């Protein structure tokens, strides 16, 4: 009898495990399309991500919200992006309130960081403060959380000095976080944010160097190419 129960349990878990692997593979594909600037594949992939979202839950679902939003942004479909990201923010908030899992606090902050750039100035300023509070809390609990460090650095770069902005401190935090980057996407985000930090301080050669490091990972990334052109014009 016990053996039959174990067999039945295995048969139930097998398709779930396969589904999770399929979702993980889809998320990896979405990340590659986004970072590589392959907008021609974005529309079809968004539809696939939407289908996957209907049966996903937990951490995988938050990643699906993120990349659906980012791909809509890549296609300049900002209203759709804002709606998807807002849904993801709400989901993360509920999950964090229910279980206190740090992942959802950080992922919620990450989703907010993309959502706020699609909003009006007043909302952007208020949301920037909310994200900083979330990342501060996350870093108190887990000082080596890469995404929380990255978001904190971005806040230091973008905030006015009157509100705690400090690009030099941001650069130091990022350099101290390089060993925590576990993927090309992480390293790309770190290098491009470092380029932005040095750009803010008008250290053009260093800004250019970090931008090239980002482009070495994803040569066709639109954000990195835009940063490269911005730095080139300022260096003249």
Topology (SSEs and partners):
Blueprint lengths: L1 H35 L5 H12 L4 H17 L3 H22 L2 H14 L5 H21 L4 H13 L8 H9 L8 H17 L3 H14 L4 H14 L1
Quick summary:
This protein has 236 residues and is mainly alpha-helical. Helix content is 80%, strand content 0%.
Keywords:
single chain; about 240 residues; mainly alpha
Q: What is the beta-strand fraction? A: under 5%
* Strand/helix succession: HHHHHHHHHHH
| End-to-end separation | 79 Å
- Low-confidence parts lasting 5 or more residues at pLDDT below 50? 1-14
The largest sheet, given as strand count, sense and whether it forms a barrel, is: none
Number of strands: 0
User: Rg to the nearest angstrom?
Assistant: 19 Å
Give the structural class: mainly alpha
> Overall mean pLDDT score?
90
Quaternary state reads single chain
Number of helices: 11
The helix content, as a percent range, equals over 70%
What would the principal axes of the Cα set say about the shape?
A: globular
Characterize the structure shown.
The chain is mainly alpha-helical. Helix content is 80%, strand content 0%. The protein contains 11 helices and no strands. It is globular, with a radius of gyration of 19 Å. The protein starts with a helix and ends with a helix. The model is unreliable at 1-14 (pLDDT under 50).
């Amino acid at each position: 009898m016990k053996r039959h129960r174990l067999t039945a349990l295995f048969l139930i878990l097998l398709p779930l495990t396969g589904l999770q692997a399929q979702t993980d593979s889809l998320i990896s594909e979405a990340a590659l399309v986004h970072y590589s600037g392959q907008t021609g594949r974005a529309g079809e992939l968004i539809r696939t991500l939407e289908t996957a979202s209907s049966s996903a839950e937990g951490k995988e679902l938050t990643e699906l919200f993120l990349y659906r939003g980012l791909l809509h942004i890549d296609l300049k479909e900002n209203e759709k992006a804002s709606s998807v990201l807002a849904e993801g923010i709400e989901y993360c908030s509920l999950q964090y309130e229910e279980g206190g899992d740090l992942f959802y606090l950080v992922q919620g902050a990450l989703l907010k960081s993309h959502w706020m750039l699609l909003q009006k100035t007043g909302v952007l300023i208020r949301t920037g403060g909310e994200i900083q509070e979330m990342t501060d809390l996350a870093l108190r609990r887990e000082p080596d959380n890469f995404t929380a460090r990255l978001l904190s650095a971005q806040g230091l770069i973008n905030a006015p000095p009157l509100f705690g902005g400090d690009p030099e401190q941001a650069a130091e935090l990022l350099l101290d976080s390089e060993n925590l980057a576990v993927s090309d996407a992480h390293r790309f985000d770190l290098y491009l944010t470092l380029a932005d930090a040095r750009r803010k301080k008008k250290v053009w050669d260093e800004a250019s160097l970090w931008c090239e490091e980002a482009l070495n990972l994803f040569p066709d990334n639109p954000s990195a190419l835009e940063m490269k052109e911005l730095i080139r014009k300022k260096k003249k």
